[in-house]
Amino acid sequence: MNQPKSPDQPSLLVVEDEQDLLEVLRFSLSREGFSVRTAENGEDAIRLVRQQMPDLIVLDLMLPTIDGLAVCRAIRSTEKTRDIPIVMLTARGEEADIVRGLEAGADDYVTKPFSPKVLIARIHAVLRRSTSVGEGIVEVGRVRLNPERHEVVADDKRVDLTATEFSLLKLLMSKPGRVYTRQQIIDSLHDGFAAVTDRSVDVQVVSLRRKLGTAGERVQTVRGVGYRFGE
Ligand code: CA
Q1: Cα(29) to centroid(ligand 1), Å
Q2: pLDDT per residue over 172-200, tens digit each?
Q3: What's the whole-model pTM score?
Q4: The domain that contains 153 carries what CATH number?
Q5: What's the 22 CA to ligand 1 centre distance in angstroms?
Q6: For residue 83, what are the CA distances in angstroms to 19, 41, 59, 142, 200?
Q7: How far is the CA of 205 from the centre of ligand 1 (A)?
Q8: 3 pLDDT band (50/70/90 cuts)?
């Protein structure tokens, strides 16, 4: 049974084929104040998204027939649904799945088993990020980035970055807390720069951290997955 949506409740679509887990999620997310619809397979998920756009999708990766990656790609490849935030549920330790999920367009992920509290925190963070817009001055903690003036200030000191380092920092800071895979970083830096490889991304990160001084610890490595700028 699906609850009616009221205008101030963010609406979620939760896609999960394990019925026990689905019930737990429906209960705890509804109690948190979300309007919750559910689907137990990829076909239903895609159909429900097209019927009524949710504000965010919680999507299990391992689903029968059409898996979560395919659902994610289907949603991202349709103009109307392309910007709906997606939080992916993945099995613990499957780093390759996490990378594939992020590259298929997921905004964030939670690894199983997880507590509903953790998922709720991620959902709130992703919803917050999806409503903030990106071209102005970005300030996170002690780091301020001014895209127009191509200027970065960390701990009140001006930092001289190369064009590639600047673009890397701008990407990471555009959505604090979001993990970017190396491939996503490469794709984003590719415009106008010489060939960027996995290894050169790592080299850029090391250099960026060093130049940011103590604020550099916010450029965090997510082992086996990629990098993010800590919230
Ligand atoms: Ca599953």
Answers
A1: 18
A2: 998 899 999 999 998 888 755 556 677 88
A3: 0.81
A4: 1.10.10.10
A5: 10
A6: 28, 21, 15, 30, 30
A7: 35
A8: low
Express each pLDDT in 149-173 by its tens digit.
Answer: 889 999 999 999 988 899 999 999 9
Compute, in angstroms, the gap from residue 192 CA to the centroid of ligand 1. 41
**Residue 162 CA to ligand 1 centre (angstroms):** 44
From ligand 1's centre to the CA of 136, what distance in Å?
40
Number of folded domains that form the chain: 2
**pLDDT (tens digit per residue) in 4-50:** 555 578 999 999 999 999 999 999 999 999 999 999 999 999 999 99
Residues 16 and 125 in one domain: yes
**Shared domain check, 99 and 18:** yes
Pair (92, 176) in one structural domain: no
CA of 89 to the centre of ligand 1 (A): 8
15 and 86 share one domain: yes
Q: How far apart are CA 1 and CA 213, in angstroms?
A: 53
- Tell me what pLDDT residue 189 has: 81
Distance 131 CA to ligand 1 centre (A): 29
> Range of 93's domain?
11-130
Q: How far is the CA of 17 from the centre of ligand 1 (A)?
A: 5
60 CA distance to ligand 1 middle (Å): 6
CATH of the domain at 45: 3.40.50.2300
Sequence-distant (6+) residues with CB within 8 A of 183 are 99, 103, 198
Instruction: Report yes or no on 195 lying in a domain.
Output: yes
Measure the CA–CA gap between 12 and 87, rounded to whole angstroms. 10
pLDDT band, residue 103 (cuts 50/70/90): very high
224 Cα–ligand 1 center, Å: 22
Same domain, 84 and 153: no
DSSP conformational letter for 203: H
Is 4 domain-assigned?
no
Do the Cβ atoms of 86 and 51 come closer than 8 Å? no
